[in-house]
From TrEMBL:
Domain of life of the organism encoding this protein: Bacteria
Full protein name: SpoVA/SpoVAEb family sporulation membrane protein
Organism: Maccoyibacter intestinihominis
PANTHER family: STAGE V SPORULATION PROTEIN AC-RELATED, STAGE V SPORULATION PROTEIN AEB
Pfam families per UniProt: SpoVAC_SpoVAEB
Keywords in alphabetical order: Membrane, Transmembrane, Transmembrane helix
Signal peptide range: none
Length: 118
């Protein structure tokens, strides 16, 4: 049942983003920022943790989960370092995920032949 919940919740998040792209004049970058901010707000309010326990990877992998990771990192860093934690926390919390995306993207460019669009 965990896989099914992850699948439908992740699909619903992606479908809502697609609806926003097609039905509004918002650009994709702004929609992504909106979703990341929504994940941070849901984490701050305390709604995201139970949601993630129910949906698993379906809630933690999309951009909504990235916003929550940033929120948790900033919260922990502010508790530990005070005001400077506002600037440190997001970087420390998301460094592994961003580094992995860069490394795997680079490795994929070696394996496959990237083609530039004209």
């Amino acid at each position: 049942m965990d896989y099914i919940n992850a699948f439908w919740v992740g699909g619903l998040i992606c479908a809502l983003a697609q609806i926003l792209m097609e039905k509004t004049k918002m650009l994709p970058g702004r929609i992504m920022v909106l979703i990341v901010c929504l994940g941070a707000v849901l984490g701050a309010v305390g709604i995201y943790e139970p949601f993630m326990e129910y949906a698993g990877a379906g809630a933690s992998v999309p951009l909504l989960g990235f916003g929550n990771v940033l929120w948790k990192g900033v919260k922990e860093a502010v508790d530990a370092n005070g005001f400077l934690g506002l600037f440190q926390g997001g970087f420390k919390a998301s460094a592994v995920g961003i580094s992995a995306a860069l490394i795997f993207g680079y490795l994929a460019s070696w394996i496959f032949e990237p083609k530039m669009r004209k």
